[in-house]
Design brief:
The complex is a heterodimer. Chain A is an alpha+beta fold. In chain A, 22% of the residues lie in helices and 21% in strands. In chain A, strand 1 and strand 2 form a beta hairpin. The longest helix of chain A is centred in the middle third of the chain and has 12 residues. Chain B is built from 13 helices and two strands, in the order H-H-H-H-H-H-H-H-H-H-E-E-H-H-H. In chain B, strands 1-2 form a two-stranded antiparallel ribbon. In chain B, a hairpin with a 4-residue loop joins strand 1 and strand 2. Chain B is globular, with a radius of gyration of 21 Å. The N and C termini of chain B lie far apart (54 Å). The model of chain B has no long low-confidence stretch (mean pLDDT 94). Classes of the chains: A alpha+beta, B mainly alpha.
Chain lengths: 94, 325
Amino acid sequence: MSNEWPLWEIFIRGQHGMSHRHVGSLHAADAEHAMKNARDVYTRRNEGVSIWVVEAEKITASSPSAKGPMYDPSRGKVYRHPTFYDIPDDVGKM
Amino acid sequence: MYAQMVKSEATKDDPEQLAAFQARVDADEKIEPKDWMPEGYRKTLIRQIGQHAHSEIVGQLPEGNWITRAPTLERKANLLAKVQDEAGHGLYLYCAAETLGVSRDELTEMLLNGQMKYSSIFNYPTLTWADMGAVGWLVDGAAIMNQVPLQRTSYGPYARAMVRVCKEESFHQRQGFHVMMAMANGTADQKRMAQDALNRFWFPALMMFGPSDKDSVHSSQSMAWKIKMNTNDELRQKFVDETVPQAEYLGLTIPDEKLTWNEDTKEYDFTEPNWDEFFDVISGNGPCNVDRINMRQKAWDDGAWVREAMIEHAEKKAARKLAAE
């Protein structure tokens, strides 16, 4: 069995000043090679102005089973949203 | 379709976990790689996405055949861009399959040793330039019909790959139709070639949706899991209903004497493809099966030294960098 090229995750920033966004993954021998492949695979239609490549195994991901303890606490904190606070119409736009 | 006759794998999981999983699917939650999933779901998806990926890659061959012989520089650039897209689509799909725990090399090996299939349509030859029109118009048209609903499939990485594919695919069908328009409005010989291409590709295109629902034994589990969104016959009917007016616009005749508009159903009645031919082609006996696999095998073998050299070079570079620090 051959020695497979490692997997890289590709992030691209589009034209309009947005953050880099994950677009997919690909195999490449090293970062420089990943960059070349990312250009060919993910920017054939002018999709981006900047590319990040990250080796997939360097990413630490949260575990799906930790969903409850991770995200439930913020669900009860509705006062973090502007709509929690009733402001009379008389005050005008706020 | 690009994934025809995908057998759903039996699943032997804990009933409670299965029910919880089904509830997530029913609620249109996306299933992600690290989530618990039934073994059958995982295996069926590997088979389906793998077959879909292989179809994109093998699908480059019948069109690649005409790149050097395109009639104008513009057509050549169009076709080259389309074939390059197909390579990209194959890569998106391989990556989606790999999230399920199969490696890229394993997928390739399974294609080459016949354990995994690709769409029957790519086992037909592309004999004239008009076939580039017919393939884009009909084959990509049929593929879009299947892929648009798959954007809503339950498996996240597959759905996301489909979104990218669909965004790019519509150019493929339009460039094919554009070629057909030029041929159909050209000289008598060109029109004859266009009609001939339609004649040869019509029934193979209908076969892409897979066997009739009454003979399609694997659909119900896959539909419950939302990895198949419509039945084969539904999609085939939709394809016929959309394509017939396009053929009329071109002034070409669909090669089916029984094709008639049904006022009651508001659909076209049409002749089913020859299913014996379909089963024969998918089991390896189509006109080009051997050529296609030989070409893939040759590319795999010829590329072996490049794959190895790239890794060697990367390791050498990394060691040199480390030594310099």
